[in-house]
Amino acid sequence: MNDSILVTGGAGFIGSNFVLQWLAHESAPLINLDSLTYAGNLANLASISEGPRYRFVHGDINDRALVAGLFRRHQPAAMVHFAAESHVDRSILGPEEFIRTNVHGTFSLLEEAKAYWKALPECDQQRFRFLHVSTDEVYGSLGEHDPAFSETTAYAPNSPYAASKAASDHLVRAWHHTYELPTLTTNCSNNYGPFQFPEKLIPLMIHNALAGKTLPVYGDGQNVRDWMYVEDHCSAIRCVLSNGRPGETYNIGGRSERRNLEVVRSICAVLDELRPAAHSYADLITFVPDRPGHDRRYAIDSSRVERELGWHPQVSFEDGIRRTVAWYLDHQDWVAAITSGSYRDWIATQYANRGGAA
Ligand SMILES: NC(=O)c1ccc[n+]([C@@H]2O[C@H](COP(=O)([O-])OP(=O)(O)OC[C@H]3O[C@@H](n4cnc5c(N)ncnc54)[C@H](O)[C@@H]3O)[C@@H](O)[C@H]2O)c1
């Protein structure tokens, strides 16, 4: 075994931020396995794609022969598993792909990781880690005054996406408990930042505002999310990977609870300053019928990872949203490349009947 890591889903939003951060801060090589669904974009990784410590492999996590071959050839010290179908609205329209990738794909990786790990010498077995990247959505929804989700909160997933991630978390737990595979699970709150596909709330609002389109907010806009700047999430994963205790789960949150409407207004305020128009961008806000089963509030208690591993988020919501808006303003070509393609068809299918998104 060497010190390289095998990453899945490294061409997606969080995965590509992680790959860039890893190669900037760590010396170990990284192999990125990604099937390049609509959400995978190699343009995110153009700056490092020719580097000697980086290797891209185009393939599906369900292809067990391929995954086994990658373990054999690269002898990695860890697997960091991001690959997933990740958009709640898409899971409502078509849940099957979520079960295939999030549940069966995770099972396939666990089986191949187990086979590889079992054949390692004991000292390497001690070092190997399987880190599973999951979400706070597995815990369901909170009332206004409920305490934040902790690692012991009972699972209560409400959307097909959340259910598929919950199922994958349970598989990871069982592979540790039953086979002693040294797993780690992180459950993180909503991320935002560079390279996020413009179907999610924050990039969609920036995109629509710049195009002079309405800013469609679901329901009454009072749904609360605990926002996390993506670079903080990536640093938390690196911290858990090197210091986390096998078999444990760690909640990762930004301590930045915000109502959706507040988030959209913050984006408008930054845009008013950086790209002033005749009227405030906030005039474009409209309310559209709510998403079915829309969870009211998520909040993460990340005191365990802070206390036990010494990780803390570094970027406040105000700073992060400013950086994010500035990044999208500077990378309009990146957005244009996406919005000119299948994304437009997807928007048409998804929003034709309801007129909005969030
Ligand atoms: N985005 C968030 O706010 C958030 C918050 C907490 C946890 N997470 C979790 O983090 C992970 C990454 O999320 P994201 O927002 O970057 O997702 P994303 O949708 O932007 O990226 C997913 C990546 O996985 C790849 N992929 C999908 N199916 C695959 C398959 N079968 N085989 C190989 N590759 C495949 C895609 O091509 C894409 O590059 C997911 O597991 C998600 O559940 C996301």
The largest sheet, given as strand count, sense and whether it forms a barrel, is: 7 strands, parallel
Bound molecules: nicotinamide-adenine-dinucleotide
Rg value: 20 Å
Quick one: how many beta strands?
13
Give the overall form.
globular
Would you mind describing this structure in some detail?
The protein is α/β, with parallel strands linked by helices and 358 residues long. It is built from 13 helices and 13 strands. Strands 3-2-1-4-5-6-11 form a seven-stranded parallel beta sheet, with helices on both faces. Helix 1 crosses helix 8 and helix 2 packs parallel to helix 4. The protein is globular and about 65 Å long. The C terminus is likely disordered. The structure holds nicotinamide-adenine-dinucleotide. The site of nicotinamide-adenine-dinucleotide (NAD) has 30 residues, from helix 1, helix 4 and strand 5. Nicotinamide-adenine-dinucleotide (NAD) binds next to helix 1, helix 4 and strand 5.
Blueprint of the fold:
Blueprint: E1 5-8, H1 13-25, E2 30-34, E3 54-58, H2 64-74, E4 78-81, H3 88-93, H4 96-118, H5 122-127, E5 129-135, H6 160-179, E6 183-188, E7 191-192, H7 201-210, E8 215-218, E9 224-226, E10 228-229, H8 230-243, E11 249-252, E12 257-259, H9 260-274, E13 285-288, H10 303-309, H11 317-330, H12 332-339, H13 342-351
Parallel strand pairs: 1-2, 1-4, 2-3, 4-5, 5-6, 6-11, 7-10, 8-13
Antiparallel strand pairs: 9-12
Helix pairs in contact: 1-8, 2-4, 4-6, 7-9, 9-11
Bound molecules: nicotinamide-adenine-dinucleotide (NAD).
In short:
This protein has 358 residues and is of the alpha/beta class.
